[in-house]
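Before a colleague's protein record goes any further, I have to sign it off. My question to you is simply how this chain folds and whether the tokens agree. I do not need a full report, just your reasoning and any doubts. This is what I was given:
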Amino acid sequence: MTQLRQRMSEDMEVRNLALNTQRSYLQQVSLFARHFGRSPDLLGREDIRTYQVYLTNEKQLSPGSIHIAIAALRFLYKVTLEKDWAFEDVLPLPKKPQTLPVVLSPEEVQRFLDCVADIKHHAILTTCYAAGLRISEAVHLTLTAIDSQRMVIRVAQGKGQKDRYVMLSPKLLATLRSYWKVLRPKAWLFPGDRPGQPITRHAVAHACAKARDLSGLSKPVTPHSLRHAFAVHLLETGADVRTIQLLLGHRSLATTAHYLRIATNKVCATSSPFELLPRPVPPPPPPAEPQYF
């Protein structure tokens, strides 16, 4: 490990950045240095600009992926190397397109879950939908996180390193109890193949893709799709946006409000003005021809 990498790693630890964020930032800076074949402290603004053009035009990365690379470089040069640059100009963030996720209907969710054969995979994917969890949160659930007395699930250190409680529905509790009676997990609610480790996100994503193929659904289905479905279905049954924000663990209400554009009972609640147009008046019938015979 180089001295610069060690210093950046320590800077992130001091600021208590999430472990996944630390790994991602170090990887992005490593790719940046490898691209030029030089240490980042020997590179300047023009090199950074050249690298951004490379990521956009040659690598053709999505704006979201470029955001991660820029966030890592901003941390390196602003915090670790203590540059006093105007970072909004030196490292501008590309504008993200405003896209809406494709959401499964309740019937499609049930059809998908019916195709998850493995009992552990079925339990964790059901939990993602029934509690609106991120996959990273679901895989790290422990047995003690399930509070059947208060009918809540404690999500420890979710995104942003924040704890929160989410709903534990009676049907989900029954599903988890049936699963526990079969596999008897000890510490992690959903243990992985490696002793003492939880199931990996990759394993859950693979099981999800397999069930989606078996279900014959035309819509894309990922573990995060189930979280989207949770939010939209709550909106469509009358839950308010603020409650959904707390359940999802969103920092900003504006993030949750995006689901208002998807919920059919919100989008289609107002009648089209076409329905208000007066009905066309039928033309009068032609005069009857006289009868001569």
In short: Residues 54 and 114 are 45 Å apart (CA to CA). The first helix runs from residue 3 to 14. The chain has two domains: 3-90, 106-267. The first strand starts at residue 146 and ends at 147.
